[in-house]
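Changelog note: in this version the structure field was regenerated for every chain. One regenerated record is shown below for reference.
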Amino acid sequence: MKIRYCCSLARPLRLLKVSLLSGFCRQKKTFNMAMGEGDYKDFGPLVGAIDQGTSSSRFLLFASKTAELLAFHQIEVESVYPKEGWVEQDPKEILSSVYHCMEQTLHSCKDLKINPADIKAVGITNQRETTVVWDKVTGEPLHNAIIWLDTRTKSTVDQFEANTPEKTREHVRALCGLPINTYFSAVKLKWLIDNVEAVKKAVEEDRCLFGTVDSWLIWNMTGGKKGGLHITDITNASRTMLLNLKTQSWDPYLCKFFSIPMSVLPTVKSSSEIYGKLVDGPLSGVPISGFCLGDQQAALVGQLCFNQGDAKNTYGTGCFLLYNTGQEVVLSQNGLLTTVAYKLGPDQPTVYALEGSVAITGAAVKWLRDNLNLISSASEIETLAAKVESSAGVYFVPAFSGLYAPYWQTDARGVIIGLTQFTNKAHIARATLEAVCFQTRELLDAMNMDCGIPLASLQVDGGMTVNNLLMQLQADILGISVVRPTMPETTALGAAMAAGMAKGVEVWTVHAEDKSQINTDIFEPAVDTHARDHHYARWKKAVQRTMKWEVDDVENQDLPQSSSAVVGPILFIFGSLAIGLIASKLR
């Protein structure tokens, strides 16, 4: 395994490596960094970050002078699966988990002699697309949050596709940058209005509010039913299929197309401005000044990807590759999404990105743990996978929610293929890690075709990147260097940066050139081109086996059949008849 350690002494940052797999903590985790006796005012102004992800909620506290992570608390958030393909979370549990994390982090800060008054702002980063609806009069959720992974809206998507003149899911891409897919919020909201009586009634009585998780949190934290702010930031809005990328506002045509009343939508804000002050919770009175962004856009900021052509890949429950396209809206020809990267202030330009999204990466590790019991903790997968030198021809395509970029096939389902009597659980564990890497290569290939300039290296972040074997496999499968910051908390750091940069707060200034001052580990490829391409070709073959699995009429599937697939059943039939005739003669 080749690892180069690169560190700059230009401005030493006290960066902390936190060994957590994002979303896989089974219990509450609290961390505080004891600095010994000293003057803690050296930390300067502090900025908090709420990181509400698919699997867990966290509150992290950063020193704005050094980007140092001082303390955090993390708690797992439970998902429920009422039916096949359905994934939900309790909005109240999401909110209470955030408050709990804030309280515990502040409690741990007593050891650091930090006064809450030193916290100048709080930013939010959140799971995107997840859809919440609530009653603005009572403040109560009208239904569980429908998580971005949820696929219950497949029939809704099919209906919208059938209603387009072109009979295609690309009908709205020119406006919102997205294909019509179960992934995005508009179809989830449409399903709720059509299928949940309480939601339908609240819409009719003008009591219903819709938002992604950022909107739900900020509405409650700024007063709730007593004047809470119903707002969202532009990056989260760009994931709904309702935002016009060019006008940067809710689009009347899109709302009409998806049958969404505009009265339920939050006001769209920039990613870095003072939205208001926290009314409830342990930091009451502190400005909330940066939803900053959906979680993947926050990671782009945290990685200092401010230049056109910069890119990063985040490894968490899913996997998300973002490529900064500057102030230009670039529509992909290769299955990628066009999204807002960030808008760091109301008077600042909007920066866009191409994005490749993979639904199941870290979630596949969780599946090995919770469903198959192959491992007892997520961190064990590295040790188990390292027991074998290869996956021995085993390929795992975890299409649990269909295939996202670059395929966008909702009818695909997962496969583990290439099994023999030689296969053991270590091979399956290694194939799971390789699946993450192969899916990333598919995204990178599509991005290179769209942008025309192949990346020379890939910046990475997210909880799964603490896995050194995964990072080495990624370098081997891509054939380029993989660059990992020694502090992987770039998503939360990006939220804190946006909050600290907001006009009126201004305790944090960052520039793209600061990237050279960040400590990194670099993983170099260690396999030859022939082996790499052969391995990848086998993966692509496995992906094809997942296609068109969930269709209504199996007999009418237009799937290729080899001659052996046709001859085999014929020989079986004739063989059975012959055996029957022989048996009758023997009687």
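Spot check on this record: The two ends are 69 Å apart (CA to CA). The CA atoms of residues 26 and 76 lie 7 Å apart.
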